[in-house]
Amino acid sequence: MKRRVYLDYSSTTPVDERVVAAMLPFLTNKFGNASSVHSFGQEARAAVDRARAQVADVINARPNDIVFLSGGTEANNLAVRGVCEMNEARGRHIITSAIEHSAVREVCDAMERHAWTVTRLPVYNNGIVRLEDVRAALRPDTVLITVMLANNEIGTLQPIEEIGAFVRETRAGGHRHLWLHTDAVQAVGRMNIDVENLGCDLLSMSGHKLYAPKGVGGLYVRRGVRLARQNIGGHQERERRGGTESVAGIVAFGAAAELARTELDARITHLLLLRNRFEAEVVRLIPDVIFNGDRKHRLPHLSNISFDGIEGDGLLINLDLNGIAVSTGSACASGSIEPSHVLRALGLTDQLARAAIRFSLGKDTTDEDVDYVLEVLPRAVKSLRDMSPTYQKRLSHAVI
Asked: Which residue in the list 84, 108, 200, 332 is annotated as catalytic?
């Protein structure tokens, strides 16, 4: 039987067996609507309240500051649209980065089509926003800064704590209606997060990135931040998100968050050991590789590598035929023929951007998994390069 190795944990994660056990009763006999006043409903309400506290604990927030939603995309939409629509009389300017996930980037594009102005900050070749650029971009009519905490393709960490301090300083100076949102979908469960230290006003999360099922997520909303509702027709989630709660999904999200909090240090240590060994061996075994993004300020589980002379899609297919699952970028952009906007923002050529593969490890990745990938990957790269006239020509010129 062919070995199967999953190295696409940034796209999604398998549901932890302990999370399945926690949610199963709410798919069967504990089926009440959390808005109902009878005992079935109160049982469901108690479970939702417990999950809210568990999710809050993983980012050091207050339970009442957590809004449950369908996932990271809805969280980003509610944060960006909600703040902007509530504050449009005070200004119509947004500051964001050039490498945001499409769930923020395309919302900003849509706001721009509705008479908003958007400033997109560069990230230079290391993939990191500079605070001085944030300061320079601020205008009297700026109402929102939205910069992701960790990038989904290259894993780079943005200086949200420094930006948060700047926002607080700016508000204290009289710019009272300025808010900071960060997309932390890739970061929650993979690094220590404290919303008080970050100084953010809103923070997006998604359950399926931390071993909960798909279809559930959350938005942290700091007390005092008002949002224009995007789901009309229900009074759930403290009037912030209408719709009957997915109790089983919320329970699963809470259980996964609790596990992430208690196991975080061990997970980080495990991931760093595997990833660092993997990268060292890639450099030793394969020539002409480029690591994309900052090598230090990044998530512990992710490597984005361009293999010069090949097409990333071809390598992805080759690895998949050998039972190895990886990605050429964001799962949400699969099928796109355009080079990654993230990699282009780093200054990569279209060729190198198309030659990139994202390897993302998880808590269940083993040394044997990494060994197998290191056995298959050099052969796969060599076979593709052998079929590339451009690479072979460049190689022959280098030898001469």
From this structure: 332
